[in-house]
Amino acid sequence: MPTPQVPHLHFAHLAKDKKLQKIMIDHLPPIQPKVNIMLLLMNSIMSQQLSVKVAEVIYARFLQLYNGKHPSATQVLSTPTETLRAIGLSNAKVSYVHNVARFAETEDLSDEKLHQLSNEEILTYLTQIKGVGQWSVEMLLMFHLGREDVFSLGDYSLQQAMIKLYKLDPTDKKALKIKLLKLSEKWAPYRSYACRYLWKWRSAEGK
C-alpha cells in the first residue's frame, strides 16, 4: 500500500519554486486511492477523446449492461462486440476494453497487486495491454492509486501551462521536453501535486 499521505505536506516544498508558488492559491487535498483498477482502466479507454459529460453517459450505459453492478473480467469478455458498440463505443475501444478484461483475467489483476509495485513497475506492467498507453497509466497512478510523485511529460495541457508560467520557447520540441523534465525534478517527491496546480491554473485561465 502507498505511504499514508499527510495533508498539505507538499505545499512548503513546492513553494520553493517561486513561479509555481504564485499559482498555488490553496492547499490541495491528498487523493485517496480508488478501488477496482480494471474498471478504472476501462473507463479511461471509453473516455478518450470525449467530453466529460459524454464519457459519463457512456460509462453509465456500460454499467447498465450489468444491472448497474461492477462486472467481472469474465462478464465483460462474454459481452458481444455488438452490445458494447450499441452503448457508443467504437470498434477500437471495444477491442481495448476486451483487452483489459482479458489481461485482468489472465494476470489475476488486483488492486492489492498494483499497490505493491513501484510507479515504473506499474507503467511497464499495464502498458503491455494494447490500448493502454503511458498517459493513461500516469493518470491512473496520479488520480486513482494516489501516487504523489508522478509527472506526465506527454500531457498537452500540462505542457502548455508550463510554457506559459515559465515563459518557455516551444519551437524546439526536443529541447522543450528536456527543459520540462528539468523543471519537474525540483518538485520531487510531490510532482503529482505540482501537475494538479498547473492543470487547475490553466483551467481557471480558460486556456
Automatic annotation (TrEMBL):
Enzyme Commission number: 3.2.2.21
Gene Ontology molecular function terms on file: alkylated DNA binding; DNA-3-methyladenine glycosylase activity; DNA-7-methylguanine glycosylase activity
Record's keyword terms, sorted: DNA damage, DNA repair
Highest rank taxon of the organism: Bacteria
Family annotation (CDD domains): ENDO3c (cd00056)
Known catalytic reactions: Hydrolysis of alkylated DNA, releasing 3-methyladenine, 3-methylguanine, 7-methylguanine and 7-methyladenine
Domain HhH-GPD: 46-203
Gene3D superfamilies on file: 1.10.1670.40, Hypothetical protein, domain 2
InterPro entries linked to this entry: Alkylbase_DNA_Glycosylase/TA (IPR051912), DNA_glycosylase (IPR011257), HhH-GPD_domain (IPR003265)
CC annotations in GO: protein-DNA complex
Keyword Lyase: no
GO biological processes: base-excision repair, AP site formation; DNA alkylation repair
UniProt record similarity statement: Belongs to the alkylbase DNA glycosidase AlkA family.
Protein name per its UniProtKB record: DNA-3-methyladenine glycosylase II
Lineage of producing organism: Bacteria, Pseudomonadati, Bacteroidota, Chitinophagia, Chitinophagales
